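TASK: fixed-backbone design
INPUT:
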């Protein structure tokens, strides 16, 4: 094999402080999960009062609907600690949910009609009402069913010591934050190029309940199982496809990742540009608003992307304002399905793979990516979504057709080198073992998450909902019977009490009408 630029870079970095810095990578996880009734249908009850106020609780909140919970871990340098935090938050919530359970899949449970998906309520404060109105806008723009899909978001940042070592090794003279932002953007471009591999390995939504389509026809070659399950025989992640968490109306947005000003400008244009598609939906200036505004994006969070550059924002600061002020601080991976084989929704093995894969995306050369290449990358992803476990499927790489098998093996060859760096940093071979195990899935696609799910559906001629309900019951029992691993129950109780007090303080501080509050918000956005 020829000596690549990545090989040369790794030789340089292996003798620097960069290796030891890999133990200080910071991570955080956001896991979404639908609350379900014992029957397996979506819960229509309010957010459990016993877990705190969804507006102000830092770790337990809701996403689109009242029934779509979101668990958010604090930032940690220990992957094991992060999973312990996530497990404890779910245990505490399940203990305060009566007989309800957490749906362990990305694609929703049986939902009879969209009105069963109740919008999340965040209280009577202006910011709380804004959050609910934003969700009403999503409902009126795209329908509620798409918003009932759950995922796992993985947040990651490299430590200062890593950046110092990398900058020194590359003899780069640019300001440090500019260097960091540019490197993160390079990571994002490479991630988009090879995102399809995430779908191949960890896609866990090859099937859905027929109710999800709400009578709509699909061109996908679905097969049927059980009483109402549709699945793709070689599919991986419907959640990431055209039926999933996507927005074709945003296809006109050419948000680019070649420089931070370019990215910021693309998003800020979208939140200021009116859309003919939404012109007839009443916005916040009407007596009975149905969306925040009539722009292409109501707010920046409406932009659907499998990866985002992020910076913690100051009060009253939008995400892009924060990026423009201070540069990229961390990245958010939004491409993960809920792992149905893990009671937390994500496994330690996945975290270790992401550590290696994202570091590979960062260190590998990352040429600029034009709009045409972005579209090619998206088409590669769609091909893997529909037929990815047929590894003879061809993708397009730099204008050349290449099979999934060949490309994946080339990537894993490089990932093995990065894993060795992590092994050196941690003093064991756990990272190399993880990469070797997942590399074997290329030759054995039935071992992937989607492969296991489809094999079970076909082997038992059952519904995916039946499988999910059994897992939901098992995981609830396991959580409730286990001890807390990171938090004390008293600490979690204090967070609940504090969240209600904080929400009251926000309400009392409001001095404007909602209309005036939103007017100020959009003038400053």
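OUTPUT:
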């Amino acid at each position: 094999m020829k000596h690549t630029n990545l090989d040369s870079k790794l030789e340089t970095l292996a003798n620097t402080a960069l290796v030891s810095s890999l133990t200080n990578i910071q991570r955080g996880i956001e896991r979404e999960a639908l609350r379900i009734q014992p029957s397996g249908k979506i819960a229509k009850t309010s957010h459990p009062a016993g877990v705190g106020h969804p507006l102000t609780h830092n770790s337990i909140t809701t996403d689109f609907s009242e029934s779509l919970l979101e668990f958010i871990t604090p930032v940690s340098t220990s992957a094991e600690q992060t999973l312990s935090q996530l497990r404890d938050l779910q245990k505490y919530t399940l203990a305060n949910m009566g007989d309800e359970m957490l749906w362990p899949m990305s694609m929703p449970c049986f939902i009879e009609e969209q009105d069963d998906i109740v919008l999340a309520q965040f209280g009577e404060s202006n910011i709380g009402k804004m959050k609910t109105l934003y969700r009403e806008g999503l409902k009126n723009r795209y329908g509620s069913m798409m918003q009932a899909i759950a995922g796992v978001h993985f947040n990651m940042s490299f430590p200062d010591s890593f950046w110092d070592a990398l900058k020194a090794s590359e003899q780069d003279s640019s300001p440090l934050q500019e260097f960091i932002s540019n490197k993160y953007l390079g990571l994002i471009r490479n991630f988009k190029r090879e995102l399809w591999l995430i779908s191949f390995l960890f896609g866990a939504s090859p099937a859905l309940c027929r109710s999800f389509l709400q009578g709509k026809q699909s061109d996908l070659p679905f097969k049927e199982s059980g009483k109402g399950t549709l699945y793709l025989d070689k599919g991986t992640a419907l959640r990431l496809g055209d039926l999933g968490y996507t927005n074709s109306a945003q296809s006109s947005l050419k948000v680019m990742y070649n420089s931070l000003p370019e990215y910021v400008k693309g998003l800020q244009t979208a939140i200021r540009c009116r859309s003919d598609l939404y012109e007839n939906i009443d916005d916040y200036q009407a007596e009975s608003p149905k969306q925040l505004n009539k722009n292409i994006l109501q707010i920046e969070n409406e932009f659907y992307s499998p990866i985002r550059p992020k910076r913690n924002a100051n009060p009253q600061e939008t995400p892009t304002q924060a990026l423009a002020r201070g540069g990229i601080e961390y990245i958010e991976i939004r491409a993960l399905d809920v792992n149905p084989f893990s009671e937390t929704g994500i496994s330690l093995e996945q975290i270790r793979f992401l550590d290696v894969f994202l570091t590979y995306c960062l260190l590998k050369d990352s040429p600029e990516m034009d709009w045409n290449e972005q579209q090619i990358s998206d088409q590669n992803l769609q091909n893997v979504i529909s037929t990815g476990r047929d590894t003879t499927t061809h993708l397009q790489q730099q204008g050349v057709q290449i099979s999934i098998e060949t490309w994946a093996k080339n990537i894993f060859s490089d990932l093995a080198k990065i894993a060795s760096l992590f092994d050196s940093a941690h003093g064991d071979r756990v990272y190399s073992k993880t990469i070797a195990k997942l590399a074997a899935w290329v030759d054995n696609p039935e071992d992937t998450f989607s492969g296991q799910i489809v094999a079970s559906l076909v082997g038992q001629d059952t519904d995916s909902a039946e499988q999910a309900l059994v897992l939901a019951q098992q995981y609830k029992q396991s959580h409730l019977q286990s001890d807390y691993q990171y938090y004390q129950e008293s600490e979690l109780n204090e967070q609940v009490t504090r969240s209600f007090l904080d929400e009251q303080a926000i309400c009392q501080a409001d001095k404007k009408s909602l209309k005036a509050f939103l007017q100020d918000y959009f003038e400053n956005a």
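COMMENT: The longest strand covers residues 26-36.
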